[in-house]
Structure formats: C-alpha cells, structure tokens
Amino acid sequence: MNQMVAFLPLLIVMGAFMFFASRRQKRAMQATIDLHESLRVGDRVHTTSGLQGTITRITDDDVDLEIADGVVTTWMKLAIRDKIEPADVTAEAAVEQAAEGA
User: Fold this and answer.
1) Which CA distances in Å does 27 have to 3, 21, 23, 24, 99?
2) Is the pTM value of this prediction over 0.85?
3) Domains and CATH numbers, the chain
4) What are the pLDDT digits (tens) for 21-41?
C-alpha cells in the first residue's frame, strides 16, 4: 500500500502532462482544419516545403497552385502551411524590388 502511495504524485504529473499535450495537439489540428476550409481561389499560400503560389483550383483533397506565369502544379491540401496575407505580399514585393535595383 505504501508503495502505491509513493507512485501517486508521479502518476498525477504524468496524467497532467498527457492531458495538456493532447489539448495542444487538438488545438493545432483544429487550426489546420480551419485553414484548409478557408482556402479560396486567388489566395496566396506557402506549402510545407516552402513553395509560394496562388490557388487556381480547389477540390476536396487537392489544390492547384500557380507558381509562375502559366506554371500550375497540383498539391495535396495537407501540404498548405499558411496563407500569405496581402500585407505580407507587399512587403515581399518591396524586398524583391530592392534586390533587383541593387
């Protein structure tokens, strides 16, 4: 009986750790689901491999990204990491223009 009481604090700490870890994972998964449901044609996005493109077509599982003028590639929706907001696009354009002018 004394041995079981000695392990009780350890079990409580392990249980709390598992509870908070699963909550964090559920929250991250819900954020990914929300992102994929919010995708629209014309959105600029980053993929998990770092590629940037503009969505030209969306199906249940795939998206077509235009990565250069007339170059369209097909990606799984799960490969979309995040959207590039319009403010981010203007900042990237300014950096590109500065690099071209140098």
Assistant:
1) 37, 10, 6, 5, 39
2) no
3) 2-87 (2.30.30.30)
4) 889 889 988 998 899 999 999
